[in-house]
Amino acid sequence: MELFKDRNFDFIKHRKVAYTISAIILLIGLLSILFQGFNYGIDFAGGTLLQLRFDQAVSTAEIRNILGEFNLSQSTIQRLSEENEFIIRAGNIDDEQRREILLAFEEKLANPEVLRMETVGPIMGEALRRSFIYALIFAFIGIILYVTLRFEFKFSLVSVLALLHDALIVLGIFSLLRKEISVQIVAAILTIIGYSVNNTIIILDRLRENMKLRTREKMENLINLSINQTLTRSILTTLTTIFPILTLYFFGGSMLSDFALALLLGMVVGTYSSIFIASPLLLEWNRIFQKEQKAVRATGKKMVKNNFKK
Predict the structure, then answer these.
(1) What is the rounded distance in angstroms from the CA atom of residue 219 to the CA atom of residue 134?
(2) How remote is the C-alpha of 257 from its chain's centroid?
(3) Of residues 178, 56, 180, the one with CA closest to residue 118
(4) Residue 43 exposed, middle or buried by CB count within 10 Å (0-12, 13-18, 19+)
(5) Residue 175 — pLDDT band, cuts 50, 70, 90?
(6) For 233-279, how does the pLDDT look when each residue is reduced to its tens digit (9 = 90+)?
């Protein structure tokens, strides 16, 4: 099945536009990460999370007033899409204090139903953050080794740059939107990395085959040809992956919405980077080294001529 009858799209011609778009999005995301930071969930920040559903209408201000009686007025209170359902993130709360808070809610507001309760100590949160960083580092190292052994080092380099591009864009958007960074989001980021590198390898594998068959063809023509040959596959794979993720986002409830959003962003950005970033970067690599090789040859010829004159 082919989606496009004429598959002669010139992706390389528009690569600078793609670079500019990526640079702008990355810059906005990095500035948000630098000045605003991440909204770490309980998994990484430590503390106590309570997800409550009240049997009557209550407001965020009323909840905060009662928490203030327990010196917890600085807690984060988030109203969910479900009516009268809230998530409260506070410092570490012991069992006795939790019972007192729930009793105060019941007496002064409405009867609360505890849907979820999580408690993570600060040491555990720090350990989870380190594990997240290690997981990303080992994932990138593994990808570099695999792609280098299967292809060449330059292929692995552009693949990892594209993966960094994808991960930073997703993290930047989450920082900008103040979405919670939790263990589920880490799992989504690692899934995105695996999906994106698979998409990129499909194109690079076709490029390697075309380089063997068309030895006299220009590199930019070979890259365009390889992307066009795999374009239908890339789009169909992305669409079939996105449809269940959209279902998860709209019908999975508040517990899974951020996880689904991270996957959705990652799939779209991963497909985009495989087509518009990874392969064009390979062209830039070749041009840089061709210039260096020409400079070395020119220097060598001059030295030979000077020696001959002497």
Answers:
(1) 36
(2) 15
(3) 180
(4) buried
(5) very high
(6) 888 888 888 998 998 888 877 678 888 999 999 999 999 998 898 88
Beta strand extents in the chain (DSSP E only): 39-40, 47-54, 76-79, 85-90, 112-120, 180-181
For the segment 195-225, what is each residue's pLDDT rounded down to a tens digit?
A: 888 888 888 888 888 888 887 788 888 888 8
Provide the pLDDT for residue 180: 82
Which distant-in-sequence residues (6+ apart) come within 8 Å of 128 by Cβ? 43, 44, 120, 183
- Token pair recorded at residue 198: 């698979």
Q: How far apart are CA 279 and CA 272, in angstroms?
A: 11
Which H or E run includes 178? none
* Domain architecture of the chain: domains with CATH: 12-39+124-298 (1.20.1640.10), 47-120 (3.30.70.3400)
